[in-house]
Amino acid sequence: MLVSLVLVNLKLIYRDRQAAFWAIAFPLIFLLIFGLFNFDDLEPLFHLNEHGIQGKPVGYFDFLLPGIIGMGVMTFSIIGMGTTIAQYRQQRILRRIQATPLKIRTFFIGQVLAWLILSLVQTAIIMSAGTVIFRAVIYGNYIWAVPLVLLANLTFLNLGFIVGSLSKSVQAASGLGNLLTMPMMFFSGVFFPTDNLPSIMAYAVKYLPLTPLLEALRGVLLAAQPLSDFPTQLVVLGSWVVVTAVIAVKTFKFE
Description:
The protein is mostly helical. Helix content is 71%, strand content 0%.
């Protein structure tokens, strides 16, 4: 039953044009903009010189690609899950499920698994487009990106549950989701290192969920470091998973 439920959820998500946009089109638009134009003049701002990271040549687009991956996973999960839960509540679908033999727990597990699978597909598409079409350089092992994306995505999905629970309509969920994602997208290191921010802000954003994800992603993909080199980032991400899960349970409503 769980496998069937996951497959159904996958179909429903990709029938939603808004979900498809946030999953594929939105991050690819950024890849297209930065891939088609020459941004080499920006490299001194990002402390990327001819020696790159650990003596390896890294250009601005190489630096940007892990940021786009993190941004895409975040926006897709928070806004997509938030609007989905808000729609289910608005249409009383969750109340109807309670009247069926299907356990609510199984329903939500199916939802989470479907979104986690799609996050990996999304990551693969973005990384393939960046490396194959725009020739981004990846020195590390792609496999290390999988546990990072899954761990961070649990936080983003929990935030999506919270958004959907607090919103009275799909439109409200979309607006609240954007309110959460936009600050992280611009200040957590997607387009430039957080070191370039004012010192107080640079310190504060390190504890946002997107920042440790991007730091670890760039380390394993660009510098070929093992995942064990990022204990602080993993602890921060794990803490966000626990805290957001508790809040999601406390704020969730069927109506």
